[in-house]
Design goal:
homodimer; 334 residues; Rossmann fold; six-stranded parallel beta sheet; 12 strands; DNA-binding
Chain lengths: 334, 334
DNA sequence: TTGAAAGCGCTAACAA
DNA sequence: TTGTTAGCGCTTTCAA
């Protein structure tokens, strides 16, 4: 299983091995004849450039580290897919790791990625506290935060305008005639959630709506937690005609709980999500939601990171994409 | 952003750099004092071993190449998650690439992975023809096929017993009283599909059931294609009380089409899937299905691959896992 | 127990 | 246009 090296090719071609290197790297200081001849021999011998050795001297692996909480999450798997596509089209590959929402692991993974000499890191932090933990590494490796808004932190990130997205949601429900909208699943420790809640609050204020919250006391958003929360919520008197869920997974939990007690969506209650994960578009679910443009998020993140790597920029950039309303059938006029 | 090297540490410690290497690799030929002292200095200087350089001399990158058709597919994203976890627990990381069901890309990706000197490849082929295309590479790099059954090919793979799974499904529907079961979404060019269809046929034969098929003429299985197929199917007379879909995504398409024409599942029609992707467990969907044990599939695949790498085995192994019925609420007694 | 030196496969500066 | 050589950061053999 030993691979053919540049030396083997040189020997076969009867040239020095630097000449082979020149043929391979597209250097101009070589005659077209020899280049063609050498390339031909490479093909015959099944030569494949050893990227590891090249990385060693070029001081660039053309590898991007991607740290997610979990690809086994419809939002991030979509992100991961587009990150790979975009990175590959730019000549990079990705090393993918899941932090499983464990900040200790996030730190370890930064260490690991640095050891692996990745050219840069795309980091989807599990929460607001992640930033402090990985801070020491940010001066050692170009890093782009993705998904999570770091507010005023002097680090590059790309995220969605969560504040604006929440406003769009409230305005939409308002137009449908809803005057009593409950915000469901607000969670501590996540700037994303914080901004969405603020957007909801601001819109309510402007529209003269009373604010109502159902706080998520769990450490993450998931269907299960959303369901448990909703179960409890539905055991109390309802003073709202619509629920605006902080995430689609929360909304799915609400849907499940509603199902159980025979509460019909959207007839008895309108339900609006946030994220537009693929589950939301499924038949029977058809959740109306605020979309995070995942493909765009991915490609902007990759491009920003590669720019940062190549320009060796020292500054930072905040790229905030605008979310859009996706109308399906979980919201109805009052 | 220049990283601290072993030489920097050696200088700071006043030893030769081979001594530092010994301290780091856990070599026994070094005194405990110096080891402790050097490790301490490494920590102070934020030294991180350059894995690329190490890989160069060790001739092992501790990297596994993972080639999937698309992580943006609930089945594979779950697989990818568990592959990462298992690989990491064994000291490996993964380079993830999506082939987008393009056999040309599959070939390119093998080339790429070999160039990157990954220690082995986990390959989820897009179809039966993939095997022929990547065959030339199999002698150059340890490879495990995952998901797709290669039948009698002398290559290692891990998959689920699709034949048995289909039988389990038919038997279950039979027990529910169904005597007229349509097999939906059978597709050419995939051994997986072939085996499932064979299992269905065998079970029907044994139970004295008439076989009915709805063939998938598209190149892949998806909700959309399933929906289109079902639309057409439902425009004809129904001579079955249950549909056994070749994949959950197909079943979801059937569900959507049924929804549209007011056909109630499971009241008017029982629906059984195959795969148990996460969508199937969602509220309102609750699809009864045959589960592919994804976590097991992932860990067995990783373990088999690593064994193959470390033992430099020349043989091959076929690992076939048994699927299980997951009862939810899309099937009812006749 | 430690140091010196070779070498992994490649690129690039310098010489011819 | 081509060849020679140094060196990327590390592990490991051989010598001290």
């Amino acid at each position: 299983m030993k691979n053919v090296t540049i030396k083997d090719v040189a020997r076969a071609a009867g040239v020095s091995y630097s000449t082979v290197s020149r043929a391979l790297t597209g250097s101009p200081e070589i005659s077209e004849d020899t280049r063609a001849r050498i390339l031909q021999i490479c093909k015959e011998m099944n030569y494949t450039t050893n990227t590891v050795a090249r990385a060693m001297v070029m001081k660039s692996t053309k590898l991007l580290g991607v740290i997610l909480t979990s690809v086994n999450n419809p939002f991030m798997s979509e992100l991961a897919y587009h990150i790979d596509r975009q990175a590959r089209s730019r000549g990079y590959n990705i090393i993918l790791c899941n932090s499983s929402r464990d900040v200790e692991q996030e730190r370890d993974l930064f260490e690991l990625m640095i050891g692996r000499q990745v050219d840069g890191i795309l980091f989807f932090p599990s929460g607001a506290e992640s930033y402090e933990l990985v801070k020491p590494y940010l001066s050692r490796i170009p890093t782009i935060f993705i998904g999570e808004n770091l507010r005023e932190a002097p680090e590059s990130y790309v995220s969605v305008d969560n504040y604006r997205g929440a406003q769009i949601g409230v305005e939409y429900l308002y137009r449908l005639g809803h005057r009593s909208i409950l915000y469901f699943g607000r969670r501590r420790g996540s700037t994303t959630h914080q901004l969405r809640a603020e957007g909801y609050a601001a819109a309510c204020e402007r529209l003269g709506l009373r604010q109502q919250y159902c706080i998520n006391t769990f450490s993450a958003s998931s269907i299960k937690y959303g369901y448990q929360l909703a179960k409890q919520l539905f055991s109390q008197e309802r003073r709202y005609t619509a629920i605006f869920a902080a995430t689609d997974t929360n909304a799915l939990g609400v849907m499940q709980a509603a199902e159980e007690i025979g509460l019909r969506i959207p007839k008895d209650l309108s339900l609006l999500g946030f994220d537009n994960i693929r589950d939301s578009g499924l038949p029977r679910i058809e959740l109306t939601t605020i979309e995070q443009p995942k493909k765009m998020l991915a490609s902007v993140a990759v491009d920003t990171l590669i720019d940062k790597i190549q320009d060796e920029q020292t500054g930072y950039s905040h790229r905030i994409l605008t979310p859009a309303l996706i109308e399906r059938s979980s919201c109805a006029p009052v």
